[in-house]
Amino acid sequence: MKISKYFVLSILIIAVAFLSQSFQTAPQRPPKTLKNIKAFPASMTYEQVDHAMDKFKVDLGVKCNYCHAQTKESAPKLDMSSDENPKKEIARAMIRMTMEMNQKYMSTIPHADTATIQAITCNTCHRGLSKPAAEPIVAVK
Ligand code: HEC
Ligand code: HEC
Fold first, then answer.
1. Burial class of residue 68 in the structure, from the number of CB atoms within 10 Å of its CB (0-12 exposed, 13-18 middle, 19+ buried)
2. 95 CB within 6 A, ligand 2
């Protein structure tokens, strides 16, 4: 039996039309919510927290699983709300410390060049390392 390529093509077109329709009518995903915020300001949105997390990753040179524990049911998927990974609590102390440095000190000291005021971030100390270098990083000449 020889199946016409036009027949195959029309089946494909119907399949694609059907699939795209079922995607359109699929229920919208519920918005992602924050369940366990203790150090960041309560006013932060999910997107803002997510953006801060991307910065942590780069500033400390780590991946999300450095601070976040795996889910019990579907490891290695991470459970971002869990506090089981002890690095997360250290990071919370670091968030509080960094915010206090900015609010209490950086905002009050006289700045030489007000056009380029730098806020203190994780990177100010960490420079891409999970544990900041104890010795000065000096360029090799
Ligand atoms: C340096 C440690 C660290 C890294 C790396 C990190 N996180 Fe987090 N994450 C935290 C801390 C600490 C909190 C809780 C902040 C608080 O309590 O205010 C948090 C909270 C979250 C939350 C909110 C959970 C909730 O339900 O409240 C999400 C989502 C999240 N992180 C995603 C990520 C993703 C995605 C990555 C990787 C891109 C990542 N994190 C990397 C430390 C980290
Ligand atoms: C003023 C400097 C400074 C800033 C700013 C800072 N850290 Fe740290 N951080 C340190 C030092 C120093 C250590 C090592 C402490 C130790 O020896 O136990 C450290 C350790 C850590 C650790 C534990 C690493 C390990 O090896 O167990 C995490 C996680 C961490 N910082 C996250 C953060 C995050 C996230 C931020 C930004 C919100 C941040 N830090 C901002 C100085 C800083």
1. buried
2. yes
How much distance in Å is there from the Cα of 24 to the middle of ligand 1? 32
Omega cis (within 30) before 27: no
Scanning the structure block, which residue is given the tokens 């699983």? 65
The whole-angstrom separation of Cα 103 and Cα 114 is 16
Closest to 90 in 3D by CA, of 70, 66, 72 = 66
- Percentage of residues in the chain having pLDDT higher than 90: 63
Task: Give the integer Cα–Cα distance in Å for 56 and 66.
Answer: 10
- Name the residue with the closest Cα to ligand 1, atom 31: 80
Q: Could you read off the pLDDT of 7-32 as tens digits, one per residue? A: 666 666 666 665 555 555 556 777 88
Sorted by sequence, the CB contacts under 8 Å of residue 121 that are 6+ apart come out as: 55, 59, 98
Contact 70, 79 (CB under 8 A): yes
Amino acid at 46: Y
Cβ contact 101:120 at 8 Å: yes
